[in-house]
Structures are given as structure tokens and as C-alpha cells.
Write a structure and sequence with these properties.
single chain; Rna Polymerase Sigma Factor, Chain: A; Arc Repressor Mutant, subunit A
Length: about 180
């Protein structure tokens, strides 16, 4: 096992300075519970710090950070789901189920906070690969970068993004906005 050194510490500090807020958002998207979210964020930081002992700059620092963070988060969720014996669902299953259940609002108005919570709830139900793709997309990454991080083709990334966006649009058009623009 490689042991982190001064260079690893410097790379870690640079990575956190540049990508810390994105890692916080990633943890929030993967974990709804605040305590579990803190645990996940700690796991991500530890995995990232340890990973720099083996970082050989064959990819950019940004790619490395996202790859380690998403792999750590996916592993965390799989362990958590196995422990709770909940099952993850695929995009096809969400389409068949019609998305997540709409929250009943007596005034038929949905504020930004509720919409974001519904978005995170849907994202949290996705299987790890679909979740990873859409979270990177929502962070503003292009298909080529997402393909580099996930190890799937950029064409497949584009297809997954299109399908998730269609599901989200359908969800908010039919349930989230209550018919309002």
C-alpha cells in the first residue's frame, strides 16, 4: 500500500480548494440523511487523500478527484443499501413507475426548495452509474469528461443524460409544477 507524502498532502489541499464545494454537493446528492452525508463526505476526503499516493498525472487533477469521489460515493451507497436491504432502481423502472410520488401541497404551489428536494430524491433512487452520470452533468461536465471519469463511452453518457433529463422533465411537468409554467 502506498503511503501519502508531502506531495500527496499538497495535491489534496489543491484538490479541496478547487473542488471542495462540488464534493459537498455530490455528498448531498448521494445521501439525504445529514449524518450519513457527513460520513460519506469524510469517506470521500479520506479516499481522496489516500489516493494521491498513487496519482501519476495520467489524467487531470479534476478527473482524478471526480473519479475517486464518485467511486467512493457509489461504494458507500452500495454498502449502505445492502445493510438496509433496499434496492436501487434503474431508469427503466423509474419510467415504468412514473417517477417519484408527487408531494401534496394544499396551495398547489411548489417552491424552489421543494423542487430541489424532489430532484435529489429522484437522483438518490438511481443506480450508481446513472446517478454518477447525472451528477457530473449537473456539475457542468461535458460527455467526454463524464466518459473519462465513468469509463463508459461518451455516446452512452449522452444517451443516459438525455433519458434522465426526459424523466425529470416529465416528472416536473406532470407532478412537480401542478400544471403551472
Amino acid at each position: 500500500m502506498l503511503v501519502p507524502d508531502k506531495l500527496s498532502d499538497d495535491l489534496y489541499q489543491e484538490a479541496i480548494l478547487a473542488h471542495g464545494p462540488a464534493l459537498d454537493r455530490l455528498a448531498r446528492a448521494y445521501e439525504a440523511n445529514s449524518e450519513d452525508r457527513r460520513d460519506l463526505l469524510q469517506e470521500i476526503h479520506l479516499a481522496l487523500w489516500r489516493s494521491f499516493a498513487g496519482f501519476d498525472a495520467r489524467c487531470s487533477l479534476r478527473t482524478w478527484v471526480y473519479r475517486v469521489a464518485h467511486n467512493t460515493a457509489a461504494s458507500h451507497i452500495l454498502r449502505s443499501r445492502r445493510a438496509k436491504s433496499n434496492t436501487l432502481v434503474s431508469l427503466e423502472e423509474i419510467e415504468e413507475q412514473g417517477g417519484i410520488a408527487a408531494k401534496d401541497d394544499a396551495n398547489h404551489s411548489v417552491d424552489r426548495s421543494l423542487l430541489l428536494e424532489q430532484l435529489f430524491a429522484l437522483i438518490q433512487r438511481l443506480n450508481p452509474l446513472d446517478r454518477q452520470v447525472i451528477l457530473l452533468y449537473l456539475e457542468g461536465m461535458d460527455a467526454a469528461f463524464i466518459a473519462e471519469v465513468t469509463g463508459i463511452s461518451s455516446g452512452y453518457v449522452a444517451t443516459k443524460i438525455h433519458r434522465v433529463k426526459a424523466i425529470l422533465a416529465e416528472r416536473f411537468r406532470n407532478g412537480g409544477s401542478h400544471g403551472q409554467p
